[in-house]
Amino acid sequence: MVIKDIVKLFFFLNLFLISCTKDEKVIADNESENSNIIEFECDNCQDSTFVFKINTLGGEIVDEPKIASALTVLLGDSTQYAGNIGIEIRGESSQYFEKKSYGIETWDKNYNDLDYNLAGLPKEEDWILYGPYSDKSLIRNKIIYNISNKMGMYASRTRNVELYINNDYKGFYLLMEKIKRDKNRVNIKKLENDDIDEELISGGYIIKIDKSDLEDNSFNDFNSFSSRYDVNGSLQGDKKILFNYEYPKPEEINPSQKKYIIDYVNEFEKSLSSSNFSDINNGFRKFIDDKTFIDFFILNELSNNVDGYRLSTYLHKERNEKLKIGPIWDFNLSFGNADYCGGDRFDVWTYKFNERCPGDFWSVPFWWKKFLEDEVIVSNLKIRWFELRSDLLSDQSLEDMVNKEFDLLYFKTEAAKRNFNKWKILENYIWPNSYVGGNYYNEIEFLKNWIKNRTIWLDESINNL
């Protein structure tokens, strides 16, 4: 009997031994399907708080591989999902927090991936349970993702969750869509291994500027490629940006496809670094969808995301289309929530991170400084910014967004109260807090005031570009 079969047998034996209440359904035997497979709909999923109950059946959740577990999802008295999942710890620095974040997959009875509209989100099998810890507002990621989606730039959709693991309350979480190629996520063509002719090989791809996904954190020709240009746009420097293959995965992308996307990025950077980079027909615009880059710039500058442009930066290319940037990802250290390299300040350019922290290994590409030397980009940026400021990003709209989430989490559901009864951190410094408010109200007020000061500074600074 192989190890996988032994694991399955152990899992089924545990399922038989578990006595389930109505709120703790699991799959009863290997002949049954997931007990709830009807697509779920609700009118106010975005403003609801779901309860996730995970039973690991005696297993310990680790940082891969995913272990077989049972999940029940409740909304009020309704069971939205009851079935198998795989679960693992996820994250980099956040793994050192007491409150962990998790990656989960919805599985069928045979432990194969099962697309499901979990908590009313579009059907998929890959999900993230993000546990805000250093972000004591609990809402930084949710707000910026909502803004991005309303701007027309896809970002992970979210649901509010209170999580229990083996009947132990873990606090408030955000269910998020994992970034991947999918018609409801990053909607690009599937690139098959034998797609190597001139048209098919042009897409789709997802690459990212980020830390390595390899266990030893290394970068090599298998999982990544390096820019030919350093962070100042020179061919001579040593400090160069590294790009990870995200889709197709390193083990699936073939050499011809690697060469295509490497050459494409090289040609884009070559054009951008040239003296005629602004040429409308033959400059950098031949290679990128500059509208997405403008929106990406606005989202990172609005929030002063200290990791912006240099980490968790995704780019994607559809077949026969230009390179686009996004989706945005990982904004827990934004909106003033970082005490290093100007992450707390509302009056600095995020894209100038390299000037404030020249010794940091993770640097911002030279692109952004160069873009702002282009009159068309600057003109379109100003138009877009002040258009957004008149509506979606107005002071009142932004304050309403924060107030709505505060009211939901503190008064309507009281999820924030329960979270901070579990995690008594409001009076403590949690890396890398720039502000310790002592209570939840103060954390929310800090966030609102920081945003107001930031938008005032950006109004003047963008206007003066």
Summarize the structure.
It contains ten helices and twelve strands. The protein is an alpha+beta fold.
Keywords:
465 residues; alpha+beta; seven-stranded mixed beta barrel; 10 helices; 19% strand; disordered N terminus
Topology:
Elements: H1 3-17, E1 49-55, E2 67-75, E3 78-90, E4 101-107, E5 126-130, H2 140-150, E6 158-165, E7 168-177, E8 205-209, E9 224-230, E10 240-247, H3 255-273, H4 290-303, E11 313-317, E12 323-325, H5 353-356, H6 367-371, H7 375-389, H8 395-412, H9 415-422, H10 440-463
Parallel strand pairs: 1-6
Antiparallel strand pairs: 1-2, 2-3, 3-4, 4-5, 5-7, 6-7, 8-10, 8-11, 9-10, 11-12
Radius of gyration, whole Å: 23 Å
Relative strand content: 15-25%
Pick out the low-confidence regions. Answer: 1-36
Q: Please write the string of helix (H) and strand (E) elements.
A: HEEEEEHEEEEEHHEEHHHHHH
The residue-averaged pLDDT reads: 91
Number of strands: 12
Describe the 3D structure.
- With 465 residues, this protein is an alpha+beta fold.
- It has two domains: 3-177, no CATH class; 200-389, no CATH class.
- Helix content is 29%, strand content 19%.
- It contains ten helices and twelve strands.
- A hairpin with a 5-residue loop joins strand 11 and strand 12 (323-325).
- Helix 4 (290-303) packs across helix 7 (375-389) and helix 8 (395-412) packs antiparallel against helix 10 (440-463).
- It is globular, with a radius of gyration of 23 Å.
- 40% of the residues are buried.
- Residues 1-36 have low confidence and may be disordered.
